[in-house]
Amino acid sequence: MKPILIGIIAAFFFAFTFVLNATMEAGGGSWIWSASLRYIFMIPFLLIIVLSRKNLKPLLQEMGRNKRAWLVWSFVGFGLFYTPLCFAAAYSPGWLIAGTWQITIIAGTLLAPLFLITIYSKKETVQIRGKIPLRGLLVSLIILAGVSLMQLEHVAAVSSATLWFGFIPVIVAAFAYPLGNRKMMDICGGRLDAYQRVLGMTLASLPFWLILSFYGLLTVGGPTASQSFQTLIVAISSGVIATVLFFKATDLVRGNMQKLGAVEATQSMEVLFALIGEILFLSIALPSVLSIFGILLVMFGMMLHSYISVRTKKSVMQLNA
């Protein structure tokens, strides 16, 4: 239950992304700066944390042993995750993005066959191709059904541009985030803690953010003071606090696909937290009875996922590429 609780807390801080990105777009800020500034602002905070724990040297040594993998999977896990989310914010409201983002619940489950699993026994060690945990997938579908009900009443009022530019990028992000996260867990092999791994991926993705920033200067000019401040809040809440908590939760269940799926399912709570945030700060209308039923269905799916993960008795597995 501890990893699931940590995942829910992470979802609360992740929700700041959807609310503040919607606020920045409403204020005329560009998605380019919403994306790039978040990760640039994260670096000083993460450096202070890792340096205070005297863990910077082991991180740099680990990155030096596999530079290409760090660059590629950090770009996937951070670049292909957050840039599409910010781009989508220019076409869709925060609640719709948060709802679509829950596709990551199923995406994380569907990625299992991409990894080899090492099973240790007294007699031998064997590697098998990961399988999709059907029970976890079914529960994820329940959660997704609840999310769909929450958003159903709004879809009819959305334009075709919103559906394409506000939907497809989020789908890309929903698959990129768990893929990058799992590959980096695989590469690190438990040798780095969550703080080191987030800092390492942020540093490895920095060339992409600098290129995106340069593109922003040429096309839309520099960010406003208001957008810079709001992006700083997102960097601290979502980029540092939420990401570290989520990585910590996934580290606790590394190698157990069933429990890993349960932790990733906790991110469905982002919809509830984002909805509350938009009601409080953006004065959106209260949810309908249908949306409330969807929220309850999500809660039920969360509890069922937790129950299955606790009852599952499987050998501890270690992911290997």
Report on this structure:
With 321 residues, the protein is mainly alpha-helical. The protein has one domain (2-320). Helices cover 76% and strands 4% of the residues. It has helices at 2-26, 31-52, 56-65, 67-88, 94-101, 103-110, 134-155, 160-165, 168-188, 194-219, 225-252, 257-265, 269-281, 289-311, and strands at 116-120, 125-129, 318-320. The protein has a three-stranded antiparallel beta sheet. A hairpin with a 4-residue loop joins strand 1 (116-120) and strand 2 (125-129). Helix 4 runs antiparallel to helix 9 (168-188). The longest helix is centred in the last third of the chain and has 28 residues, at 225-252. The two termini are 28 Å apart. The relative contact order is 0.23. Mean pLDDT is 82; it is low at 313-321. The chain crosses the membrane at residues 31-51, 71-91, 97-120, 132-150, 156-177, 198-217, 229-247, 268-286, 292-310.
List the main descriptive attributes of the protein structure presented here.
321 residues; mainly alpha; three-stranded antiparallel beta sheet; 3 strands; globular; disordered C terminus
Short description:
This is Drug/metabolite transporter (DMT)-like permease. This protein has 14 helices and 3 strands. The chain is mostly helical and about 325 residues long.
